[in-house]
What we know:
two-stranded antiparallel sheet, alpha/beta, 10 strands, 43% helix, globular
Amino acid sequence: MTRTVELAGGAALPLIGFGTWExxxxxxxxxxRAALEIGYRHVDTATLYRxxxxxxxxxxxxxxxxxxxxxxxxxxPQDARHARRTLESSLRQLDTGYVDLWLIHWPTGRDDxxxxxxxxxSAKDAGLARNVGVSNFSPAQxxxxxxxxxxxxxxxxxxxxxxxxxPALLDEHRRRGIAVEGYSGLxxxxxxxxxxxxxxxxxxxxxxxxxxxxxxEHDIVILPRSSRRERIASNFDLDGFTLTKEEVTxxxxxx
Length: 255
């Protein structure tokens, strides 16, 4: 059973996603195929990553029903003034009629923030994106586009790790009903940390699995990336153990 978080519009977003940043074309294809075989049903790419065509081909070749795979792509800020054209290009690359989630990858210049968000809302209305959101936005920037349009992002994708997180920031998103996707959770963590290793030994898993499980305990969507099948599998294998409240609190205080 795939664990999901419900987005404001009612869509079910799988909590465990597969990230594709820095995966070159052939590797992206093979890694996404492996991820889908292992059980992932959420794949994250972006125009910036230059692998949308390979991701789309992997989804198509996997044999998994397209409706069962939650596909995200992202708009580069420099493409903001021709956002619809960029999304249409992404859809041609992915070879899908829609994406499940389209994000503004980074905030644009202030003057373009609201017009760009309006373009995403327009694409949603046109059925090109089932859900729309942002990445690397502050709560103030989220409020700016929400107040201007009456519609808030479904998701904010931001860096999140034991060393880079904040309960107050999470509360700001929860209060608005916005799902948080955390990226670089493993990259920004010292997996040799003795505290993580002690907890991992206690559960018979890896420190990376502990960090990913910690995200899930906070209902943060994770996007681990790897090109190694065994690592892709272990990053997905997070249901065989749970962290105690004390362990979660300990990890919360790592720096």
